[in-house]
Design brief:
alpha/beta, single chain, 3 strands, 3-stranded parallel beta sheet, Rossmann fold
Length: about 100
């Protein structure tokens, strides 16, 4: 899966409409099942987070109420991740995810 091949440090998702709850839930489940070397924290933003019960049901690690808050959370995660190999090219995105 893309997360594992690229040693992702954070998965940021955003949704606006409540109708997208199932799609977000599917993305969260796929990320949790990715089998990466370490768990990838998941952040959710967008107007879907205005309803705190929806965010809780989606079982994400962080909820960002604004772009500023999302950036702050991303920086916090970034400083806790060891440096990767700058010579290594990231994996290509494919349709298999």
């Amino acid at each position: 899966m893309f997360l594992g091949r690229n040693d992702a440090a954070l998965l940021a998702l955003s949704a606006s409409l409540p109708e997208r709850e199932q799609a977000v839930r599917d993305a969260v489940a796929a990320a949790r099942a990715a089998g990466t070397d370490r768990p990838v924290p998941i952040m959710l933003g967008g107007t879907i987070t205005a309803d705190s019960t929806v965010a809780a049901r989606l079982e994400v690690d962080f909820v960002a109420g604004s772009l500023v808050e999302a950036a702050r959370l991303a920086r916090t995660v970034a400083v806790s991740v060891p440096e990767g190999n700058p010579e290594e090219e990231p994996a290509e995105l494919d349709s298999a995810g």
